[in-house]
Amino acid sequence: MIKNYLTIAWRNLMKNKPYAIINIGGLALGIAVALIIGLWVNDELRHNSYFKNKEKIAQVFQSQTFNNKVSTGPAIPRPLEFALRESYMDNFEHLVMSSWDFQQYLTYGEKNLARDGNFMQRAAPEMLDLKILQGEKDGLRELNSIMLSKETADALFGDENPIGKVIKADNEHDLMVTAVYEDIPFNNSFHNTKFLIPWEKYITLQEWLAEAEDNWGNNSFQMFVQISENVTMERVTSNILNVKKDLSDEHVEYNPQLFLLPMKDWYLRSNFQNGKQVGGRIKYVWLFSIIGVFVLLLACINFMNLSTARSEKRAKEVGIRKTIGSQRNQLIKQFLGESFLVVTFASVIALFIVLLSLNGFNELARKEIVFPWSNPLFWLVSLGFILFTSLLAGSYPALYLSSFRPVDVLKGTFKAGRHAATPRKILVVLQFTVSVAFIIGTVIVMQQINYAKNRPVGYDKEGLVQIPTFSQDFEGKYDLMRSEFLSSGAAIEMSSSSSPTTRIWSNRSGFTWEGKPDTFQEDFAYTYVSPEYAKSLNLKIVQGRDFSRDFATDSLAILINETAVKYMGLENPIGVILRDTDEEDPDPPLTIIGVVQDVIAFSPYEPVKQAVYEYDREGEGSFYNLRLNPKQSASQNMAIIERVFKKHFPSIPFQFDFVDEEYGAKFAAEERVGTLSGIFTALAILISCLGLFGLTSFVAEQRTKEIGVRKVLGASVLQVWNMLSKDFLKLVVISCFIAVPIAYYIMNGWLQEYPYRVILKWWVFALAMIGALLVTMVTISFQAVRAAKANPIKSLRTE
Amino acid sequence: MLLQLNNIFKWVNSGGQRIFLLKDINLQVEQGEFISIMGPSGSGKSTLLNVIGMLDGFNEGEYQFLEEPVHTLKEKHRANLYKEYIGFVFQSYHLLDDLTVKENLEMPLLYKKFKSSERKAMVADMLDRFNIVGKKDLFPAQLSGGQQQLVGIARALISNPKLILADEPTGNLNSKQGEEIMGLFKQLNDEGVTIIQVTHSEKNAAYGSRIINLLDGRMI
Predict the structure, then answer these.
(1) For residue B14, what are the β-bridge partners?
(2) Predicted confidence (pLDDT) at residue A564 exceeds the cutoff of 90
């Protein structure tokens, strides 16, 4: 029986090849999209699955309230560790203090590398369950030890056994390699942590780190915990919520609240708005899941429409089978079987499409997805998916076709009734509604990206290069290096700063000034810059003057940005003095000497933050900012700069970033979404048009006789074309009017997340509608014109 | 007795009027009969045949088939009944275009869940009996009308039905082919198969043992 069904199904496909290609090809595309999105979603959801204790690991977060606005982040003060260790350890299996990701220069013999890593407490390898390849798991026991990732160890030591060898970190500290651990895979936190050094070493590095020991106000550290077996995250959060508030009197006014962010939320749900968890990347997981389902649905609709449209041809078969003794459910099974065959066939093609495009997709989506060949669960899910799609695509044709009564269809005059095409029309409307909504969505995403990209950044980011100067080796070398670089001819100006140009690394509060309201809780982006900062960035001074080495008083001078002027409520900012509120050991008062233009240092989608730039005579910042010589090419300049750099710092790897590229990276996430949704939209439209193409050719075929008669009676090609196109164009117009409000609603919601956002314009919607109509028209016309041009004698004879 | 129709009425409502397709039909058919239904176009011949074949329902009356009250049976039972006992032959053959002669013959057996080996034997037997072994792998479109009808009859016979219903079986054939088919029916009838045919032709009707004349849905 099954063989009989398959034979019929196969011959049916072969007899009508264009139909088969549209059906299988469209479905294969839809399945490929769904499959790729499925792999992507799976990858996103499996983030951090490398860690055995994933369910029990969390990071301690802190929410504080400044000027009635709650800000939330992972930064916590050092005394918290002691407080928790003293009275709350029954909540925790492990508690690990950690630095931020730190770049270090690692040197062994002739080899030196720059790698990111962390200073962590002893329990870290146990908590993260690092897979130790060589050495011991308890590798952070001794002060001067270091654990290396496999990749780092290989790069430093090659074939040598690294265990017990001593390497230099930042040309300063001798550290003994105690362990080599397996590289943490790409889609996991700590993927970039290429080495671990004991926390105890960290706090000896700089004075302020040690001093932070009893300072509840210095939120410069991270804390990871693994909670005990018998407690929940919520329970621990409620236990530690007010620890800081209770123990540190002076910070009560900021209402510090501590809570745990579970490891499973780090990646997908790490956004906070006013102290509340508001998702994060999970919204893209949802977005793409929905897109995947819709694209698949579009492909299934094609299958349904084309099957039912061809029903008149299959009607006879149904009639015969029924008179011979087939029951309805047998016919339903038969047609479902056919759809199963087609879907399986399409799935195999989809598999090839996925395999071929996976690399490109990985590149686009910044992923390292490998095809799960050996995962039985994947194949199981795929089989389920094929069955589900067969049901989805085949159920309607199966029910419809099997309902024919043999007496009706065998008379030979069977014509589907006037309303038989109605469900088909509804499905076409659904398809185009989705397609038009996709078009609008994509256009708006692109617009928003362009809008933010075109926003003036406040400085000249072209031809600006930053070189990290984290190592002690750079101490006291600023003036020398500046004159070296300038005289080399590769740079025309240079400055140093404590933060990169495209980021805010430190914020500061604790100031008072004349006219400051009593309850005002100030918070400034704070950067130390050398006197040439504004000149090197081409920053405009809008009021007052720039720093100058000629004025000795400038060592206690600051520049503020335009936003800060408004923020502080100053009428005339020049000469205003900022005093430190620390009563025991106040820093000297600082005088505002100038106002600089606003600079986008954080998100291009958000307002510029109030900023203070403090004069740093010695240039002890973390970056050199070089304004390249515009008369030479960038590669020439960089070659010279590298040579000069290597002359003075032979043992430090030469690293640099072009500031405009760094700035461009801020758009990466949105651009990825834009590109991907653009591709998926194109596919959705292609699939919809394939279906429409199939339907028009079917209608044209069905009405061959009518067209013949009309032409004999004098209808022109244009009139016939109009007759055939009108019906479909009507459907697309209806879709547009359904799609526009839906798309408006959704996209408006998306844009609300960006304080700096494009205003939705009506022409975007009009353009999408016109675009959809044009594409439809072209698709239909292929068949319509062919049908209209056919010689009527021929078409009439065949009847 | 094979089947019995008592006071069968069938009508459709059109524009507030009731149009009768069948009016008070009373008919008894014994095993081994060869009945011809005749009458002008639109007199209800095919409708009557479809009612007998259980492909179509009726509005009033009783229908007994092998002592089973067909009018009270559920769809599924009815299907089992005609699957078991009735074979259909159509004017335009109604073979499945996508299947070969052999596969067309095999199809009714599939629905009756015969085993593969049995099916093969029965199909081979039937091909042999109708002398179409050489055509078994051809598709219907590759056969002449007469040959197609031969396959159609073979398909109707393959599951050993008690009753064959033929709706103008020679209507699409030339006279020579028609004679052959009618000869075949005669022969089958002699072997004991009950046949009811619808026909326009007096000559074909003469093959039968009884003629029923219909006019406007009534037997006259």
Answers:
(1) B17
(2) yes
Whole-number Å distance between alpha carbons of A446 and A265: 28
pTM: 0.80
Asked if B124 contacts B115 with a C-beta cutoff of 8 angstroms, the reply is: no
Q: Which of B90, B95, B107 sits opposite A410 (nearest CB)?
A: B90
CA–CA gap between residue A458 and residue A404 (Å, rounded): 72
User: At A658, which amino acid appears?
Assistant: F
ipTM summary value:
0.80
Burial B144-160 (b: 16+ CB within 10 A, else e): eebbbbbbbbbbbbbbe
Q: Tell whether A14 lies on the interface with B, counting CB pairs under 8 A.
A: no
DSSP for A198-265, please give it: EHHHHHHH-HHHHHGGG-TT---BEEEEEE-TT--HHHHHHHHTTHHHHH-GGGGGG--EEEEEEHHH
Nearest to B103 by CA among B119, B86, B80: B119
Asked whether the predicted pLDDT for residue A92 surpasses 90, the reply is yes
Q: Report pLDDT digits (tens) over B173-209.
A: 888 888 988 998 999 999 999 999 999 888 999 998 9
Interface of A with B in 412-431 (CB under 8 A): 412
Q: Are B79 and A15 a contacting pair at CB < 8 A?
A: no
- What span, in angstroms and rounded, lies between the C-alpha atoms of A350 and A28? 5
Nearest CA in chain A to B157: A324
A31: alpha, beta or left, given left = phi > 0 and alpha = psi -120 to 50? alpha
Residues A658-694 have pLDDT tens digits of 999 988 888 888 888 888 888 988 898 888 888 888 8
* B94 to A405: CB separation less than 8 angstroms, yes or no: no
Please answer whether residues A262 and A59 qualify as being in contact, where contact means their C-beta atoms are separated by less than 8 angstroms. Answer: no
- Determine the pLDDT at residue B8: 93
Tokens of A14: 């072969």
Q: Using one digit for the tens of pLDDT, what is the confidence trace for B165-183?
A: 998 898 888 888 889 889 9
Contact indicator for A55, A370 with CB cutoff of 8 Å? no
What was the pLDDT predicted at A707? 81
- As a residue count, chain A comes to 799
User: Count of CB atoms within 10 A of residue A261's CB?
Assistant: 19
Q: What is the pLDDT of residues A465-483, one digit of tens each?
A: 999 988 888 888 899 999 9
**pLDDT range class, residue A744, cuts 50, 70, 90:** very high
In contact, A3 and A668? CB cutoff 8 Å: no
